[in-house]
Amino acid sequence: MEPLQPLIDHVNARVSLTPEEARLFTSYFKLVKVKKRQFIIQPGFTARHRSYVLQGAFRGYVVADEGQEHSIQFAVEDWWISDYNSYIID
Predict the structure, then answer these.
(1) Which of 26, 58, 66, 68 would be a feasible disulfide site paired with 75, CB 3.0-4.6 Å?
(2) Residue 7, domain extent
(3) H or E segment at 76?
(4) In terms of domains, do 46 and 58 share one?
(5) What is the pTM of this model?
(6) Contact, 78 vs 6, CB < 8 A?
(7) Are 52 and 90 in a shared domain?
(8) Based on the domain organization, do 88 and 59 belong to the same domain?
(9) What highest taxon heads this organism's lineage (predicted)?
(10) Same structural domain for residues 79 and 37?
């Protein structure tokens, strides 16, 4: 099975892609394996992409001045995650 087939299925649930369109669409993606507790976006960096979760779960958070973490988003399988403000504005 195509490694990005879940992503193709995710899109096909909303619009119908031909096999050629699916190949073109997935050519813009890169499969990246992320270890537990590994950052996908570092503090202070501009988000240049959005991430689609094939397996596992991710948490987005901010750190308050006192050092306390505040969760602001979660993404599980078949969902997207990114620093949307940075991605869109910066």
Answers:
(1) 58
(2) 1-31
(3) strand 69-76
(4) yes
(5) 0.77
(6) yes
(7) yes
(8) yes
(9) Bacteria
(10) yes
| Contact yes or no for 50/83 (Cβ under 8 A) | no
Residues 26 and 49 in one domain: no
Count the alpha carbons within 13 Å of 81 in the hemisphere toward its beta carbon.
21
- Burial annotation 32-47 (CB, 10 A radius, 16+ → b, else e): eeeeeeeeebeeeeeb
- The tens digit of pLDDT for each residue in 20-55 reads 999 999 999 999 999 998 888 777 778 788 889 999
The H or E element that residue 12 is part of is: helix 5-12
Q: Is 58 helix (H, G, I), strand (E, B) or coil?
A: strand
One domain for residues 8 and 46? no
Phi and psi of 37, rounded to 5°? 70, 10
